[in-house]
Amino acid sequence: MANPSQHISYDYTIAKWFMFACIVFGIIGMGIGTLIAFQLAEPSLNDFAGEYSKFGRLRPLHTNGVVYGFMLSGIWATWYYVGQRVLKVSMRESKLLMFLGKAHFVIFMITILLAVVSLFAGVTTSKEYAELEWPFDIAVVVIWVLWGMGIFGLIGIRREKSLYISIWYYIATFLGVAMLYLFNNMEVPTRLVTGMGSWLHSVSMYAGSNDALIQWWWGHNAVAFVFTVAIIAEIYYFLPKESGQPIFSYKLSLFSFWSLMFIYLWAGGHHLIYSTVPDWMQTMGSIFSVVLILPSWGSAINILLTMKGEWHQLKESPLIKFMIFASTFYMFSTLEGSIQSVKSINALAHFTDWIPGHVHDGTLGWVGFMTMAALYHMTPRVFKKEIYSKKIMEMQFWIQTIGIVFYFSSMWIAGITQGMMWRAVDDNGTLLYSFMDTVDALKPYYWIKAIGGLLYLIGFFMFAYNIYKSITSSRSIEVEPKSASPMQA
Asked: Which intervals hold domain Cytochrome oxidase subunit I profile (predicted)?
């Protein structure tokens, strides 16, 4: 029987726009991240442009540029590609959906560029993953509503009756972020209330421990619904399409989905262990974080078993390599996070460099690899061009993998060293080391971390070049590839 998708002319206009945005913001966000990594190793690099080159000014630009620039652009690029193909309906069949999609992109770009300017100027709420002030929060809500209308509008006119598991995860991303972002960013603009201060300044509607609880309910679940849920949506589509293998177990994908939705929401309390929040909340955060291994590994194992009997593809296809290693890094990162949330281990790990080591293990290995793999898979099908160079892709993979290993291993060692030095006391209970002693001890690891970040950035430039050459210089193809993308040497 003919595949109905062969008779549908999909419109990838918006997917293309978000692909370009993803690459640009990836270069900006990772470039700033590499700079601040070297600033930690060599503090004099903080002073080349006064206050605007300080670590504290650049760090929010790095996190927001990567999370909300690179990651969200990648997620939306894949949605506007995957959504049409899985639901068997084209965006061009609805003028309203096309308008919503274009408005989604335009308002997003305006907001993210203004946000970059405000953060660079030092205008920030100082809340992790929620640094943007209230006018930008309103714009974010508009952007999110436009995306939601696009999701449910496309579902409403679909030809495919069943909703593939990737659609479930995209819907969960939309609903989870919408709920959590609204609650966490409840704030009072001070100028509107008091008539004094900047029009951009605001204060949170919560205070003290309540503010911390709401913030980390959001903060950790920004990781859940942006770093995790949406990326699972991607790999459940792109790995079967690239490998030609069906998902190992659809039932396991559903079990992992519902358990992930329930468990992840309550794990954020592990950020507040040994703080002033109630002890039962700290314990609940620890317990749910440990149990979180089950749905996380359920998804990862389901992905790995999809390649059962086809492991030779790992050697033959760089794209399969990217996706399988992404899933492996996901397993490592989630296990590591669960271990760090155990109270006795958290006492050693909290506030140390082991924590950013854990975050970057997942971000660079899981999110970064999967996003690049998705864009590589999409390029021949969206632009009707062969991938320019398999050799560049292969070199990129190994350079970035080495970079990730340098990064997280150095931060593991640095973090445990920090924790042990902070806790070390003599027979009289006096601390053996000053804070600066720990900083001096960590300097070699900061250099290894910075070099690892630089290697990853070099790999990303190789990725951007390969995509650019594919679009501009590669051979055109009439029939889209059925599995692994056709590549030149």
From this structure: 216-489
Average pLDDT on 280-296 reads 94
CB–CB of 136/202 below 8 Å?
no
What pLDDT, on the 0 to 100 scale, is given for residue 483? 61
Distance CA 261, CA 263 (A): 6
Give residue 485's pLDDT band: very low, low, confident or very high (50, 70, 90): very low
Rounded distance, CA 92 to CA 381, Å? 17
In a domain, 197, yes or no: no
pTM listed for this prediction: 0.94
Q: Tell me: the pLDDT tens digits for 297-318?
A: 999 999 999 999 999 999 899 9
Helices in 121-228 by DSSP H: which ranges? 134-156, 165-184, 190-194, 208-222
Residue 79 lies in a domain: no
Domain count, the chain: 1
Token pair 């974080």 is found at 289
Report, as an integer, the average pLDDT of 247-272: 93
Does residue 384 lie within any of the structural domains? Answer: yes
Look at the chain and count its residues. 489
Q: Is the dihedral angle over the CA atoms 343, 345, 348, 353 positive or is it negative?
A: negative
Residue 484 pLDDT exceeds 80: no
Domain membership flag for residue 414 = yes
Q: 140 falls in which pLDDT band (50, 70, 90)?
A: very high
What is the residue whose two structure tokens read 């969960």? Answer: 172
For residue 478, the model assigns a pLDDT of: 80
Q: What is the dihedral of CA 15, 404, 66, 35, to 10 degrees?
A: -130
Q: Is there a contact between 235 and 324 (Cβ–Cβ < 8 Å)?
A: no
Mean pLDDT calculated for residue range 118-137: 92
β-partners of residue 431 are 425
* Tokens linked to 273: 């262990």
Q: Which range marks the domain in which residue 457 is found?
A: 351-389+404-489
Contact 449, 407 (CB under 8 A): yes
Judged by DSSP in three states, 132 sits in coil
In degrees, to the nearest 5, what angle opens at C-alpha 247 toward C-alphas 244 and 481?
20
**DSSP E strand boundaries for 195-276:** 202-204
> Do 220 and 270 meet the contact criterion of CB atoms below 8 Å apart?
yes
Tell me the C-alpha distance between 15 and 17, whole Å: 5
Q: Strand runs (DSSP E) across 179-290, as ranges?
A: 187-189, 202-204
In this predicted model, what pLDDT tens digit does every residue of 357-374 receive, in sequence order? 999 999 999 999 999 999
pLDDT above 90 covers what percent of the chain? 87
Give CA–CA dist 11/87, Å, rounded. Answer: 13
Alpha carbon distance 196, 355 (integer Å): 39
What radius of gyration, in Å, describes the C-alpha atoms of the chain? 23
